[in-house]
What does this fold into?
Amino acid sequence: MTSSPPSFHAVVVGGGLVGKTTALALSQAGLRVALLAPRGAPPPAGAEQFDSRVYALAPSAQALLERLRVWPAIDGQRLGPVLDMQVRGDAFGELRFSAFQSAVAQLAWIAESARIEAALDMALGFLPQLFWREQRAVALDNLSDGPARLTLDDGTTLSAELVVGADGAHSWVRAQTGGTVKRREYEQTGVVANFHTSEPHRETARQWFLDGGEILALLPMAGDYLSLVWSARTEHAEKLIQGGGERLGAEIERVARGFTGTLRCVTPPRGFPLALQKVDRLIAPRVALVGDAAHLIHPLAGQGVNLGLRDVAALADALAAKEPFRDHGDPVLLRRYERSRREDIGAMTLATDGLHRLFSERLPFLRAVRNAGMSIVGAQPFLKRWLVAQALG
It folds into this structure.
């Protein structure tokens, strides 16, 4: 006589920031949840030990983490508020945004991924209905007329009403559903590093559109530290990384023209390829996709993780509104989730890809038009407030 496999309301595949937040949100809602992901390393210790993965968390992300009672557990001394933002075109164009003028406490918080994940790990440890498994899923049978079955690499089988794919841009879960993915390489690499600066950053984020479509962003971390995201042509990015932190800092100082003071690199430069990725469906029978598994956008607006966390909030809300006669993988619930996310994902994808295309064009008249457009927008307070509202989520 064979025993039935362990059953769950939801199995979350993927343990990054979005995956852990999904598992926490569903568990706190009373669902029996399994999280399939390796356990993360503790955050770097020491005043100048930083995680090179840094996010600009919008108020919508903060609100979700507060709702899940995670926000107070994040080390507040490692959170940097963004009170102002300056965006400079590749000629004379300029935009300035202010939290004060937008009537918000801050435009965003700059936080290290490891600090957020450590707070999530602690919260997950208090949930008796959360089962954290470090095994890898190797097979998925997502049957529409019954629970999905996941086979793990140790031979264990799990049964789930819903499988959530939170396993990144190259999602294994998405691949099992046979969904269509359209991917376009930007032929750019995002170069990231953190620096100590000799001049106060005054809680101001700065972004420069450079020749050839490159974008340099400096984000204010807690204290006198800045986080770099330089979207550079791949061959240029390789030179920036190979040159090391000292040469990279000098190059940033040259581009920033005195805004940074003297920079001292505190985390080695790293790079990751940039691409635009769209999927035809966010759902499949008994499957929902969230985060990078559902969409991948250019980092020029720093909205990728915020978009993913809004996926989590929408999925949790859709499941919370479940009628008693439905289970958690009911196609009606999944379609509600998908419909609730299409507009936000589409608008952010269009905006980020459109800006990248616009500033990648080298035609002189387009250069004049885009910089004039930035200046015109900068002179319209109502339009600026609308743009801020979209970024805040």
About this structure: Residues 90 and 211 are 6 Å apart (CA to CA). The radius of gyration is 22 Å.
